[in-house]
């Protein structure tokens, strides 16, 4: 076993699965503990956090209470504060059997945490099968992967046949990966934006197989991914740096940081149907017929003002000049984000600047923040360009199929369904399920059963990780208490903000 801890300010939200493939759980009522959870929902989520002594961790439940072991080995979880003694502290050890499983040794008791029947126990002097826990990360499944050794981001190669670790900044859909937890094996697969799976030899597979499954190991604030042969993924040498399994030990080369994928988008002017671009000089102009990297912008949110900075691939930021002209020439991100996104009833978005005026496109295509009253020249169609595959989540759970044989969608699932996002005209997108069928409005809800893209939807970016979804008719998709994924009203205040 290898004992490790977390950096002081780092935490992981995880599910812990025992050898019987059941999740450690704290029930909402009575603070009762067990390991009877069949799936990871809210009650099965635990936060690993540093204890403060630099050597141990604490486990905090979804209720904000800490797991504690008393001197008799009784395990409880009803304390909202870390005690001054060692009761909530555990030494966390990674097993040497290449399983990726973790053992937790109580500092106060000196025994290992395990599960027995309907309770947690801390009575084993050494970890057996009952004291070994697999990890299911509760992080957002769609991420950017940054190599700690190379200090570069992973991306799908230009020919779409492998993953290379060579990007200074993750840009576009090729840098987006889905960490797909496979419940049966308790392992992970790396799913690319072109719907392929990474294999240990570095190739991509259209089908999920044993060679595509990896154990996730937590290494401080990073992870390592081990294939079924016991070797870890790492970028190769040279300029291409192809991601494949090589070493049987973990160094910085085998460690990756999971970073939330920032939203990247394109804007199409309603007035001339051209895309906003920074392809010529610093001036921002709506003058391009197609979307390329120069027509794609990263949106970085400022929470206190609810405004956005727009960043280009050249690492420059938008600014509004004294005369109202919009330029992309700021080398550093402005402390005050310059633009507010104002969503319109007709599926467009307007951009409002700090001078109180809206951004409009002149006949030349140049953007100026000098519009007092919203008209067609200051409305833009909006496309999320780095989400060709989307996973949706709300407070109740993930959006997925009501039953294995059903096409009706609900939003209270423990495991997610993935949907392809196809861009259409006029700011609309179509959602396509893994069954090859498209979303359509059906009996007040959404069914994934249309042979053709019958119904379009608008995406409205509200926060870096949340969107509102609106039908072509202007009605928002909302969650219902029973898990229903329904079409609601036109009031954005009542719209569900879907984590994506």
What can you tell me about this protein's structure?
The chain is mainly β and 500 residues long. It has no helices and 50 strands. Strands 14, 15, 16, 17, 18 and 25 form a 6-stranded antiparallel sheet that branches. The mean pLDDT is 94.
In short:
The protein is mostly beta strands and 500 residues long. It is 0% helix and 46% strand.
* Helicity, as a percent range: under 10%
CATH architecture of the largest domain: Trefoil
Whole-number tally of structural domains: 4
- Radius of gyration from CA coordinates: 25 Å
Beginning-to-end CA distance, first to last residue: 37 Å
Q: Give the percentage of residues in beta strands.
A: over 45%
Low-pLDDT regions: none
Number of strands: 50
The largest sheet, given as strand count, sense and whether it forms a barrel, is: 6 strands, antiparallel
Instruction: Please identify the top-level CATH class of the largest domain.
Output: Mainly Beta
The overall pLDDT, averaged over residues, is: 94
C-alpha geometry: globular
